[in-house]
Amino acid sequence: MADSSTTAGKLRLDKWLWAARFFKTRSLAKRAIEGGKVHVDGARSKVSKELTAGTSLRIRRGLEELTVEVIALSDKRGPAAAAQQLYRETEDSVAAREESAALRRAAHTGSSPPPGRPGKRDRRLIHRFKNRHGED
To answer: Where exactly are the structural domains of the chain?
Structure first.
């Protein structure tokens, strides 16, 4: 799905991240790059960094971290199926993401949210507890 406008086989990092559907807008991609959430070949990068096929990217979105290899370049945002053809996620990255997701799911098992809002007696106990421990 390489686009004709990428004549020299290079494309800006923020455009590629947007076209590959890692971020909904280019401004979100720019903010992530400037915030150090995207690393190119193991180093922080600038928004205007030019990508080529074969470049390795480490992308952090929320709790998940992906390591992908750029396969193709495109500055057009197409359907998700076409965007997935632009990169390949490493097997280590897939395994690490699945493991962390399983750990997060396991951390929430057995705990249940409170049944509802605290009543008058519950609030009094909460206030008494906080005042005893020097909290406001």
So the answer is: 1-92
Q: How far is Cα 12 from Cα 6, in angstroms, rounded to an integer? A: 10
Segment 58-117, tens digit of pLDDT: 999 988 999 999 999 999 999 999 999 999 999 999 999 999 999 988 887 777 777 888
Burial class of residue 105 in the structure, from the number of CB atoms within 10 Å of its CB (0-12 exposed, 13-18 middle, 19+ buried): exposed
Say whether domain 1-92 belongs to CATH 3.10.290.10.
yes
CA-wise closest residue to 23 among 37, 39, 44: 37
Q: How would you class 71 by CB atoms within 10 Å of its CB: exposed for 0-12, middle for 13-18, buried for 19 or more?
A: middle
Task: Quote the longest CA-to-CA distance of the chain.
Answer: 71
The model carries a pTM of 0.74
CA–CA distance, 74 with 6 (Å, rounded to integer): 7
